[in-house]
Design brief:
It is built from no helices and 8 strands. A hairpin with a 6-residue loop joins β4 (about 60-75) and β5. It is mainly β and about 130 residues long. The chain has a 6-stranded antiparallel sheet, with no helix packed on it. The protein has a two-stranded antiparallel sheet with strand order 1-6. It starts with 5 loop residues before the first strand and ends with a strand.
């Protein structure tokens, strides 16, 4: 899907203004791990972050980011240590402009998907590895 984003800056003269920027937020991180009988294990990680930012005379923004990662580590197969997993990160923002700055779209959500596989090969006495 095509997403259109624009930023416009007004042309009215403004004096240089020094002011404090208000930034606040919080986050939560949760991890879960379960060893399986065959020597493998499953891991799940959930992360949520919320940020509020207010830059006087320019814009204010509220942003939420949610990240979910799942990893499956397989039992050793000879010198091979196989791991694979998947994840999704979704970030949503809501931006309030001023008469001098406008953001279009005002609210936007962007998902990012990931998938990976890794093979860690023991080359020498559990001291040298090839990944």
């Amino acid at each position: 899907a095509l997403v259109r984003s624009e930023f416009t800056l007004g042309t009215l003269p403004v004096e240089n203004v020094r002011d404090e920027i208000s930034i606040s937020g919080y986050n939560v991180l949760a991890n879960w791990q379960r060893p399986l009988e065959n020597g493998s294990d499953l891991r799940l990680q959930l992360y949520w972050d919320h940020t509020d930012r207010d830059i006087p005379g320019t814009f204010s923004e509220s942003r939420d980011t949610v990240d979910i990662d799942w990893v499956h580590k397989l039992p050793l197969l000879g010198p091979h240590g196989l791991t694979w997993g998947a994840g999704i990160r979704v970030t949503t923002d809501d931006v309030e402009g001023t008469q001098f700055a406008t953001f279009l779209p005002k609210r936007r959500t962007d998902p990012t998907y990931s998938l990976f596989a890794q093979d860690r090969i023991d080359l020498w006495d559990s001291r040298v590895f090839l990944t």
